[in-house]
Amino acid sequence: MIVDHAVRAGQRIWAQGADLIVNGTVNPGAEVIADGNLHVYGALRGRAIAGGADNMEARVFALNFDPELVSIAGYYAVREGLTEAPIGKPVQVRLIGENMRFDRLG
Q1: What CATH number does the domain containing 100 carry?
Q2: What's the family (predicted)?
Q3: What's the confidence (pLDDT) of residue 62?
Q4: pTM of the full predicted structure?
Q5: Most buried residue among 5, 11, 13, 22 by CB atoms closer than 10 A?
């Protein structure tokens, strides 16, 4: 599923059974959910949930990573707990076992 606009506060977009690509910003208070992978080609400032169908292989990609919450297959981290994540940078988030890993892209 492809979304070609910003996702505003209060909006929820769910790509059921698919990957989600957002060509814009995910604003604070917005929520994007994908049963597969989640790609945000803009700033990720809201809530990002990938692997909605317990897909532990799902990943989150963002060009400007600064989420309120990020989750993969039910494992999650909130903004205050993202001390090891490169905030404001291009990032790939994935699970290694039950641990969330934040890798800078590029």
Answers
A1: 2.160.20.70
A2: Belongs to the MinC family.
A3: 97
A4: 0.93
A5: 22
CA distances 44 to 64, 85, 97, 98, Å, are 6, 13, 24, 23
Q: Beta strands 91-96 and 47-50: pairing type? A: unpaired
Q: How many domains does the chain have?
A: 1
Q: Which helix (H) or strand (E) holds 4?
A: none
Q: What is the pLDDT of residue 82?
A: 83
Which residues fall within 8 angstroms of residue 13, CB to CB, at 6 or more apart?
1, 3, 7, 20, 22, 31, 32, 33
- Return the DSSP state at 6: P
Q: Are the C-beta atoms of 28 and 10 separated by less than 8 Å? A: no
- Report which DSSP code applies to 27: -
